[in-house]
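Q: What would this complex look like in 3D?
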Amino acid sequence: MTRGVAVQLTDLRRTYSGVNALDGLTLHLEPGELVALLGPSGCGKTTALRCLAGLEDPDSGRVEVGGKDLTKVSTNKRDMGMVFQAYSLFPHLTARQNVEFGLQLRKQGSEQRRRRSAEMLELVGLSAHVDKYAHQMSGGQQQRVALARALAIEPQVLLLDEPLSALDAKVRTQLRDEIRRIQLEVGTTTLFVTHDQEEALAIADRVGVMRSGKLLQLAAPQELYSRPADDFVADFVGLTNRVVGTSRGTTAEALGASLPLLPGSATEGTVTVLIRPEHLTVTQDAQGSAVVISSSFLGAQGRVVVSPGEDLQQVLVQVPSAAVADFAPGDRVTLRPVGAPALAVARG
Amino acid sequence: MSGIRATRRRRQSVLRWVVVTVSMVFFAAPLAGMLDFTTKDAQGRRTAATWAKLVDVEGISRDYPDLAAGFTASVGLAVLTVVVMLVLLVPTMTWVRLRVPGLSRTVEFLCLLPLTVPAIVLVVGLTPVYSWVTYFLGESTIWLGFAYVILVLPYAYRSIDVGLRAIDVKTLSEAARSLGAGWGRVMVRVVLPNLRTAVLSAAFLAVALTLGEFTIANLFSRTNLQVAMFLLGKSDAQISVAVGLAALVFAFIVLFGLSFVGGRSHSRKENS
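A: Here is my prediction, written as structure tokens for the whole assembly.
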């Protein structure tokens, strides 16, 4: 499998009109690894990918691929396949001709090109659409062809710049899984940029969360979710309740329970404890101090919004979908943390 | 309700046909007059002698050397104008759109500027330039092509700009570059094929304008088709008018061919 190469971005800086798009970004990708860069709009994730592709020149820093310094190498000599957010198929070429484009530039013979394009289009499940033009295909099909085109040249690195954002939810999930299957099959080192946390968590080996040009945390999806480095990461990845508590070294008192604190937490004084909705339980209790504000059925699970009763903001609790009907607005309930480690940040 | 709508539709249809017919008569009447004039002899009898002379290439070269020279010069001028205009404009506009979009207003202003400058003023400005052109390249009429490029800029700019707006040049060129294409290949293999109709349209406008240009050539004392026709008109009006009519018909055929090519390539893609 591992045909991939290591990628190293070191201290990349890029400024646009005084705004730091990249502020000393350092990132390492292992050979064959899929790393997702996640963050809100304008956090610098696309700029990082474009610097790696050579489509943007960093003000300073180094881009190394397979141990070679590519910082000053032009895009067309970097040997990277790229799938863009916007549909990027050449409109005057068919799906097959699009896939053969890069191979033709590499002076491959027509028979070899045809074989390779057929192989790639089969890989993305579009063997029946080889002679179609871009305008005759759906958005999902176009992005599949774009993926086949990027992979056909056997790139050292595959770059995916929000390739699913223009697609509807169902196609997006389907194609997301296909990208992961294909990436594992071909073993190309891949950088995937997205603002969709679910997408990043679902397919990446590691996820990097960015903000204001900086990489805040780079970790495996599970670790990122369960041990966020700071409150921004905790807020951005998954849902989080912000509850007032008191920190006592390695634990914090919140919602009437003592919670173990994650590394990096504030260790004393009044703090904001970040608790995931699934780390809370809610039970019917006529004597309880909390009140149900609303409950909603979301298919596989349900959510109940509860007011803890004190001078605290509302709290979201995840419950089994079958239990949603048990909670009506105005019901008195008891709210309890399950005791999972949480992050505590000093109250600003 | 549907009766009122049908009546309104009928009225609109009649109005449309009236407008089309009046326009056709307006444009066709002078052409019919030209045809009538060139197909009559001195006694007012119908004859195709003038047109027979026109299609006799050897005869016309022998009997009307200035006309033949003017025609050759105009064809050469058209080719040079189209080539220089495309080489200058397509990469520049693509580059501006990709790399310095902030300059697009300036480029547009520069390209549209010749519209506001009368040909006579242009000639005054170009006279010192052409004394150097003549010094370095000689007195050939063909070098008027450089001035004609300036004349066609506004029309060519509009056509190419429409074409560039219709495609996502940035993404397409970045996709091509990521696949290994240099800038030359991006232009030839990706940008130009997607600008085909726009480029053809710009080229046609350039050809039409070049074939019809009189003022600059006359003021620079060069002989192109229009100058030759003007001079010929003094000695043989019939052949001069016949050439004018032929040039117009040629322009119509090119325009029709252009729309046919554009339409056919589009429908072929749709069908496949």
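A: To summarize the key features: The two ends of chain A are 49 Å apart (CA to CA). Chain A has two domains: 7-226, 242-346.
Q: Very helpful, thank you.
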